[in-house]
Automatic annotation (TrEMBL):
<keyword id="KW-0479">Metal-binding</keyword>
<dbReference type="InterPro" id="IPR015931">
    <property type="entry name" value="Acnase/IPM_dHydase_lsu_aba_1/3"/>
</dbReference>
<dbReference type="GO" id="GO:0005829">
    <property type="term" value="C:cytosol"/>
</dbReference>
<dbReference type="InterPro" id="IPR015929">
    <property type="entry name" value="Aconitase_B_swivel"/>
</dbReference>
<dbReference type="InterPro" id="IPR050926">
    <property type="entry name" value="Aconitase/IPM_isomerase"/>
</dbReference>
<dbReference type="InterPro" id="IPR036288">
    <property type="entry name" value="Aconitase_B_HEAT-like_dom_sf"/>
</dbReference>
<feature type="domain" description="Aconitase B swivel">
    <location>
        <begin position="178"/>
        <end position="406"/>
    </location>
</feature>
<protein>
    <submittedName>
        <fullName>Aconitate hydratase 2</fullName>
        <ecNumber>4.2.1.3</ecNumber>
    </submittedName>
</protein>
<dbReference type="GO" id="GO:0019629">
    <property type="term" value="P:propionate catabolic process, 2-methylcitrate cycle"/>
</dbReference>
<dbReference type="Pfam" id="PF11791">
    <property type="entry name" value="Aconitase_B_N"/>
</dbReference>
<dbReference type="InterPro" id="IPR001030">
    <property type="entry name" value="Acoase/IPM_deHydtase_lsu_aba"/>
</dbReference>
<keyword id="KW-0408">Iron</keyword>
<dbReference type="InterPro" id="IPR015928">
    <property type="entry name" value="Aconitase/3IPM_dehydase_swvl"/>
</dbReference>
<dbReference type="GO" id="GO:0046872">
    <property type="term" value="F:metal ion binding"/>
</dbReference>
<dbReference type="GO" id="GO:0047456">
    <property type="term" value="F:2-methylisocitrate dehydratase activity"/>
</dbReference>
<dbReference type="GO" id="GO:0003994">
    <property type="term" value="F:aconitate hydratase activity"/>
</dbReference>
<dbReference type="InterPro" id="IPR015933">
    <property type="entry name" value="Aconitase_B_HEAT-like_dom"/>
</dbReference>
Length: 929
């Protein structure tokens, strides 16, 4: 069997699934195609030509390297293919984005044949994905007097690769399709259970929404061939939850435009909308593809004759429809006037926010990558020619308010800003390019990140990035055939690229399936850092972190930069005293509830939560910052006092050292560099040279929330409210209920302690409760299964040293074994304790799940429908969220407890406590009161 016959066999298998041939990334297969193309009598020649032209992946794939070399030979006359003329060969090279294709084009442009050089130069003038090796070569040729090199630099200095592109059309006709009522999570657009197929775009596209919705979209396209389908979240926000490029890719695949005729299944420019707009992370991802995201505001609060908001019997505002966007409604977007119009030309909504100069540039360029690289290329060319830069791009919006102080996030952005006007202090609303210090890639989006890096011709991590980390946590639970096929390949790619990887491609260190956010929290060693991670829960307790799609992660890895507006902030402070029987997780839930009570609307959405925790170390503070993803916040910043920050940095140093000791250090000495950086930061704090980050006293906030700890008197539960008559209010994180609401009658089918929301103290609480109940009753019996998954191996090692692991193992009916990891997912559980492998486990729902229709009480983060538990026809699955002690007790009782049962069970247990400082210590230099 040859690679080609294997490929044909795979095609036949895919036909049975309704799929086309898989795009080719392997050099050896392309070499076989070329051999058959050269053989004019070969029966497979025509098919080989089609595969070569239309089905070979571009960028830095090994296949692209072989393809570019063969096209070069055709152009030089060394090979002759009737169907691929030199002119067509140049066209194919122009669609290959960079890497080998740019190398070939530079070979030709700087070569001796004048006609060929001129043709190559014309193609190069359209390219933007040039890296240092390319620009250094061009610069050297220019300095040596090469006329073509000068011509290219002059074109780049004018940014003709951008200015000569067609403008965005003035009117865009759309036809609406309502994908769901209420918030639409990226789980609907790209289900976690289908994570294994994300790198296979056509296959993964089959999982978007439902087969019926896919047919409906196709019918709309047939009925309205002149319109683009606009996917809508009616009465909700589009794209909440996980940061998934795959979700946008799927929407683009079904509703967008083909990026290139020679690159299969890569579509761009989707149009998405929501009554309450687009989730910040999802909107960034839409920009990656040059798409359009619209805030419809088509449902508004009803008011009476006096202008007062009308409320229902539950005290909720009654909504009324301002205009209809029912499926099949034809609308027009005027990009010049920035308005949304109905079929009669009446203006329905101003949509200026969707058409800022920067977003229009993304649309014109076919995505944000081309703009980022274009700016870098124009800057380089101007410098090489000794010219002043005359940017072809819209100037970044710079908002500077004289006399106004800076919030914490504004300070971080000003510190890391790139290319801004010298001496100008920037406030919220400014568009900024910023240096990224820490980049995290997770394992179910990682294959896509690798694809994006190959597509943009990147081969090594940017030297300006302090550390890049590739996790293995989302596929930790089950080492099945899908994981075995995807993960080792991913780890090798990322390790070669320069990241620290959870799994060693050489097998020399133990697989570290630790939860990505926990690792990033440990390896962030400066409170002024900017972190970007391929997961929405990239929310650190040091610095400011942004969950991002796989494409933005790839861009940050390749360039060391990210571009975004400086967000507004909401200040969260605390007063009162935390009750002895309460856990800090209850404070987290109460914050959401008290915010809604104080402001009516979710003021956190799309903004940075500046949380003044101060006295909580990084592990415990992370419980709050991590939860901010569920509050629909863009990010969070944790304000620590000096002493606490030093303690957190010392803890980070110790854990980074453990990573080194386990053999995870790379050739660049990245991990040791982090320890050195932490030491330098500690020295700054101790000397008073630069104290812990604190906002200015006269900073301006969008809103302020004061959390009254005295009001938190019983455990709080975030409830998906699955039976709410208003569909739009289901599966949000706005329904926070005290445990007494359930009257000790709510049956709990499964408890889960784990995910990124827990720390070492939580696992110790499980052990302490078992000890207490064992002492009280002689033994502990579970009336519901309890699944416990520590976030990291370090935590387990520390629990073993401190004696807590022994009692957990004693009660465990299942303990993970790294030597023999599970190969099948578990969906049914006995009434025992399960000690699962460190990682995401049940929280993700892409491997392990509860039985359909179960009621799960968990410490995890997601309430989304079907995430942790699926539905039965007669009963919806529920994933309720609560604190660790509440989950443990509910699993033992098989139901929600009474407040008295809960208090008795936690008596004497060291719960996670929080006490805001009452006054500034005389020694502190960064009080935050």
């Amino acid at each position: 069997m040859t690679l080609y016959t294997d490929y044909l066999a795979e095609i036949e298998t895919r036909k049975e699934q309704g799929l086309h041939a898989k795009p080719i990334e392997d050099a050896a297969l392309v070499s076989e195609l070329i051999a058959q193309i050269k053989d004019t009598g070969n029966a497979e020649r025509e098919a080989s030509l089609n595969f070569f032209i239309y089905n070979t992946l571009p960028g830095t794939t090994s296949a692209a390297g072989v393809k570019a070399k063969f096209l070069k030979e055709i152009i030089l006359g060394a090979e002759e293919v009737a169907e691929i003329t030199p002119t067509f060969a140049f066209e194919l090279l122009s669609h290959m984005k960079g890497g080998p294709s740019v190398e070939v084009l530079l070979d030709l442009a700087l070569g001796d044949d004048a006609a060929t050089a001129a043709s190559a130069a014309e193609v190069l003038k359209t390219q933007v994905f040039l890296y240092e090796a390319d620009t250094d070569r061009l610069d050297a040729a220019y300095k040596a007097g090469n006329a073509i090199a000068k011509e290219l630099l002059e074109s780049y200095a004018k940014a003709e690769f951008f200015t000569k592109l067609p403008e965005v059309e003035e009117e865009i006709k759309v036809v609406t399709f309502i994908a769901g009522i209420g918030d639409i999570s990226t789980d609907l657009l790209s289900p976690g259970a289908e994570a294994h197929s994300r790198a296979d775009r056509e296959l993964h596209g089959k999982c978007m929404c439902s087969p019926e919705d896919q047919v409906a979209i196709q019918e709309l396209q047939k009925q309205h061939p002149d319109a683009r389908v606009m996917l809508i979240a009616e009465k909700g926000t589009m794209g909440v939850g996980s940061s998934r490029m795959s979700g946008v890719n799927n929407v683009a695949l079904w509703t967008g435009k083909k990026a290139s005729p020679y690159v299969p299944f890569v579509n761009i420019a989707p149009v998405v909308a929501g009554t309450n707009g687009i989730s910040p992370i999802f909107l960034t991802t839409v920009g990656v593809t040059g798409g359009i995201g619209i805030d419809l505001d088509n449902w508004v609060k009803k008011t009476d004759a006096d202008g007062n908001v009308v409320v229902d019997e539950d005290g909720e505002a009654v909504l009324e429809e301002a205009y209809s966007v029912a499926t099949g409604t034809v609308l027009t977007i005027n990009t010049k006037d920035k308005t949304l119009l109905d079929a009669d030309g009446n203006v329905l909504k101003d949509v200026s926010a969707a058409f800022t100069p920067q977003k229009v540039e993304f649309m014109k360029a076919g995505g944000s990558y081309a703009v980022v690289f274009g700016k870098k290329l124009q800057t380089f060319a101007a410098a090489a020619l000794g010219q002043d830069l005359k940017s072809a791009y819209a100037p970044s919006k710079e908002v500077s308010v004289e006399g106004q102080g800076l919030t914490a996030v504004e300070k971080i952005f000003n510190r890391n800003a790139l290319g801004t006007t010298p001496g100008v202090t920037l406030h919220a609303g400014s568009d900024v390019r910023v240096k990224v210090n820490v980049v995290g890639s997770q394992d179910t989006t990682g294959p896509m990140t690798a694809q994006e890096l190959e597509a943009m011709a990147a081969t090594v991590i940017s030297p300006s990035v302090d550390v890049g980390y590739q996790s293995g946590c989302h596929t930790a639970s089950v080492w099945d055939k899908k994981a075995q096929a995807n993960i080792p390949k991913l780890m090798k790619f990322m390790n070669d690229f320069g990241l620290v990887t959870a799994r060693d491609p050489k097998g020399e260190y133990h697989s570290m399936t630790d939860v990505i956010h926990k690792v990033l929290n440990d390896i962030t060693v400066d409170d002024w850092d900017i972190i970007v991670g391929g997961d929405s829960h990239t929310r650190m307790s040091k610095g400011v972190a942004f969950g991002a799609d796989s494409g933005t992660v790839a861009l940050a890895l390749a360039t060391g930069e990210a571009a975004m507006p400086i967000p507004e902030s909401v200040k969260v402070t605390f007063k009162g005293q935390m009750a002895e029987h309460m856990d800090f997780r209850d404070v987290v839930h109460a914050t959401q509830a008290q915010m809604l009570k104080q402001h009516g609307d979710n003021v956190f959405q799309g903004r940075v939560i500046e949380v003044h925790i101060g006295t909580l170390l990084a592990d415990q503070a992370f419980t709050f910052t991590d939860w901010t993803a569920e509050m629909k916040a863009k990010a969070s910043v944790c304000i620590s006092n000096d002493e606490t920050l030093i303690g957190s940095l010392e803890l980070a140093k110790s854990r980074i050292q453990i990573m080194i000791d386990k053999g995870m250090e790379n050739a660049a000495g990245t991990l040791q560099g982090l320890i050195d950086k932490a030491d330098a930061r500690i020295a700054e704090i101790q000397s008073g040279e630069k104290t812990a980050l604190v906002p200015d006293a006269n900073a301006k906030y969008f809103a302020e929330v004061v959390v009254d700890l005295d009001e938190i008197v019983e455990p709080m539960i975030a409830d998906p409210d699955v039976n709410n008559e208003d569909v739009s209010k289901r599966y949000t994180h706005d329904t926070i209920r005290p445990v007494s609401y359930y009257k000790a009658e709510k049956k709990v089918d499964l408890g889960f302690v784990g995910s990124c929301m827990v720390h070492k103290g939580d696992i110790k609480i499980v052990a302490q409760m078992l000890k207490n109940l064992e002492k009280l009753n002689g033994k502990v019996e579970f009336k519901a299964p309890l699944v416990v998954a520590a976030p990291t191996y370090n935590i387990i090692d520390e629990l073993k040293e401190e004696g807590d692991w022994d009692i957990l193992q004693r009660y465990s009916g299942f303990t993970f074994d790294d030597m023999f990891p599970k190969t099948q997912a578990r969906t049914e559980y006995e009434n025992i304790l399960y000690l699962e492998r460190p990682g995401c486990s049940l929280c993700m729902g892409n491997q392990e799940k509860a039985a359909k229709g179960d009621t799960v009480l968990a410490t995890s983060t997601r309430l989304f429908q079907g995430r942790v538990v699926g539905d039965l026809p007669e009963k919806k699955g529920e994933s309720l969220l609560g604190s660790t002690p509440l989950v443990v007790l509910a699993a033992i009782l098989g139901r929600t407890p009474t407040l008295e049962e809960y208090k008795a069970a936690v008596e004497g247990i060291n719960l996670t406590k929080f006490a805001p400082p009452l006054q500034a210590p005389s020694t502190t230099k960064s009080a935050h009161f």
